[in-house]
Fold this protein.
Amino acid sequence: MDARTAATPALTLVGHAVQAAIIDLDGTMIDTLGDFHAALSRLMDELGLPAVSREQVEHRIGKGSEYLVLQTLRIHLRDDQAQDLYPRAIETYQRIYGTINGQYSNPFPGVPEGLAALKAAGLRLACITNKPTRYARELLDLKGLLQHFEVVNGGDAFPRKKPDPMPLVETCKQIGLPTAVVLMIGDSQNDALAARAAGCPVALVTYGYNHGEPVRAVDADGFADRIGDLLPA
């Protein structure tokens, strides 16, 4: 047994004994829809394409910048046109996003207090997101949340992104814990699929994006209106 595993007490959350939590970023900790909409609006303007609505953007959040940009292009273009324009679009989008990261986003209610409560209860915390790592760390720092996390891994940290289990499995290795004792906390089916495949228990918050679909229809071990609600009363 790893010394860190033995030294970390377990808490029972959503029916599982856990020693750490891996927490998603967009839609789980921080409402970043405003950032995404602003960046994509500027992108579409620079490309000479029609604007996109906040709802159209919201339904495409959660699978990484590459997916978000390509699917947004497909709103107004044929697939072959979107594919041809994509290399220019993703480069332009990353430039734009880097200038506005955090300007139009805020932590969801209860998140700062919930993270502090999870840590105070003895859980070790890591963040996994499909957002590029540099933007994830910058955003968490801007919102005063970075200090809670031992590890922050973005979509560029590993060869594959969620819903592939690789980011969860590798992050558990980094913190020296087996996946079975690490709770995934997210807001979408993407997070749940990754957790199930990795062997992690999973809890979903009820206020996130989930690609525009009802979150309670997703296979998860539990649901919470606030992150802190996952702790025993």
Q: What stands out?
A: The chain is about 40% helix and 15% strand. The longest helix spans residues 79-100. The chain has a mean pLDDT of 95. The first strand starts at residue 11 and ends at 13.
